[in-house]
Structures are given as structure tokens and as C-alpha cells.
Amino acid sequence: MTSRKTSLKSTKKRMTRPKLKLKPKPKPTHKPTGTRPKNIPSTIDRISRLPDHLLHHILSFLPPKQGGCTSILSHRWRHVWLSMQGLKFYTDEFANFGPDKFISYVNATLPYRSKQDLQVFKTFLLNDSPTNLAASTSWITHALKNDVRVLHIIIQLKNSGDNVILPRPMLTSQSLEKLGLFSFPDVRIITPNVISLSQLKTLSLQQMDVNSAFMEKIISGCQRLENLNLHYCWLRCSGISSRMLRNLVMENCGIQNLRKNKFYICTPNLENLHFNQKYAVFWPTGRVNVLFRQCKLDFRSLKLDVPNLKSLILGGYWVSRNPAAVTFFLQQSPMLEKLTVICNEVSGPWIDVEPFNMSSDLCFQCKNLNSVDIIGEKSGKIISHLTEVLKRNGIANLNLMELLI
Prior knowledge:
This protein is α/β, with parallel strands linked by helices. 23% of the residues lie in helices and 23% in strands. The strands form 2 sheets. The chain has a 15-stranded parallel beta sheet that branches. A 3-stranded parallel beta sheet has the order 9-12-14. The chain is globular, with a radius of gyration of 33 Å.
């Protein structure tokens, strides 16, 4: 028995395969990127796990109609779009269907909107028919009831120069911080009896007919107004006066009767001024007056009171016609730190560059001026005159840049 057991052991030893020695795997020289942690399964939807405010930010880059389509992605997404703090309703996506389809879409969406504060609301004020005007007015009222903070209204009209009555809640809101009114074509706003926007800090107007009564009520009824942006507006007022204003933009605005009357900008605490007048005169309908030779506009028709101005952007008609316009602004801005001048070389029979001479009118003192950018054609006559004036006043560090068209 003993010999038999010994033979069986020896047979098993012969049948056992020798163990192979495996070479160790080489360690990676760099960490693999984009790998998924082991404890997270491959099927998880990590985007849907993001908090609502991040999903709202993602949806803000989508057109409104596409943003609404995300509600069918999953149960998580069903109410995300409706709880957004910023809503935009534009007619571009409904151009092929007409205004009725657009109105039906907005009317069907707003009732499902969660009752919470709105940050931003952008839409149209359709003034082409009483029915459309009533519908779009109700949308604005809905936003104001939800304490909207930023309101942008595009006023759509049939005819240029039509009158518009703005909804009363829009002009008496206690939550609005930014208000933008944009129209095409140009529009005349019926001056309301009361304007009381206690929280408004920024007002933007585009292609608006602004008379003295409207401007005065805006300034007096918006005690916290710090930013005023005027683009392509027809200014039928004597000027702008405000102690609270910090930033003012006047771009391509027509100023009525500037040859006869002074237009004043009386803003003692203004820090930034963007004054770019591409054209000399506008008709009230918005058409450009082509008879520039007959409009002897003088930049000295402006009356400036901006002692604390720190940043100034100048450009357009006056700068192109006479470089002395730049020194006129600098003489009124002793605390200026940054200057940007946009020089468009103007050709044609309707604008002549006035003769250039170094007189006392071209002298100024801006001790804090340390940044000067001049944008235009470097070889142009206007820039050569302007650089000479600045250098003679002790401004040597000039940054010349080509105007990109």
C-alpha cells in the first residue's frame, strides 16, 4: 500500500503543470484623462443632476421655442424651463406663421409659468392692432406682477412715427432695475402723467422720439438712475441734467435746433461718457438730412458740466469735421483718465474738414490722462492733426489703431 501511494503522488507531480511567471504590467507614465470613477455607472445622466440654476444658465443660450422642447427629455426636465428666472419671447421663430401663432404660443406658456420672482423678461409690444396690443400688454403686466428686474421691450409698429402709450404698470414698477425700450421703425411715446421707478438703475432707449417732458419725468421719477443709453434717438429736449448719472451713451442721436439753442449735459457725477455722432442732423422721421453744407453745426453748441469724468469715447461727425472738438471735451474734463477717439475719414461734397490751427482753444489740462487710444486710418489728415494737438499738450503716450470695417 505504501508503494502504491508513493506511485500515485509521483504521478500527480508529473501531471501538474508548472506555474508560469507573468511579467508585471508596466505602470502608465501619465494619468489617463476623462476616465469615469468606478462607483459611477456608465448610464447615469450627470447633466440632469446639476442644480436648477445651472440648468437655467444652459437653457438661456437656446431660443425660447427650443428651450421649451427640453421639457420632453425626462421627468427631471419637465418643469425646468418653466421655472427659469429669465424668459424671452421673440417673433423670429414664428416668422413663417404670423403674429397670431406667436401670441397663442406666449398665451399658452405663461399660465404654466411657476409663480416666482423673475430676473429677466424680454418680449414684443405689438402695436399693429388693438387685439395684439392688449395681448402683449398682458404679458408685460404678468412679468411686473412677478417682480421682474430686467425688462426689454421691442415695440413693433406699422408706420414710422406712430404714437405709443406705454402700459402704466411698466412706469410705476418698484422692482425694475433695468429697462430697455427698442422700436422699429422710430416711435413717439405719449408722455405719461406719472413715472415712478424707484429701483431703476439702467435705462436704454433706441429709435425713440424723446421730448422735454418725457426726459424731465424720467430724470425726476428715477432717483437711482445711474446708466442712460440713447441710440438713434431724436432728442427734442434742451438737455440732460442729473446728479445721480454715472454712465451716459449718446450714439447717433439727432438733436433738434442745435444751431439755435444750446444742448446741455449737466451731470456733475458722470464718470463715463460715450459720445458718437455719426450724422449731423436727423429729421423727426429718422431720415438723415443730406444737406449737411447748410447745417453749420458747431460743437460749441454743447454745454458740458462733467467735472468728474474719467473715461471718454468720442467719434463721428464732429470729430471728423474738426479735431478741435476733442480738445473742447477735454477742457471740460480735468479729471479724465482714459480717452478713446474714433476718427472716420469723411469724403464727399457734404462735409469739409475745417482749417486747422494751433490756437488757445486747443489747450487743455488733464493731469490724470494716462491712456489715449486713437482709432482710424493712421495716414489720415485728421489723425495727424489730432496727434499734434495732443503732443503739444504734453500727451506723448498715444496708441494708434487701425479702424476695422
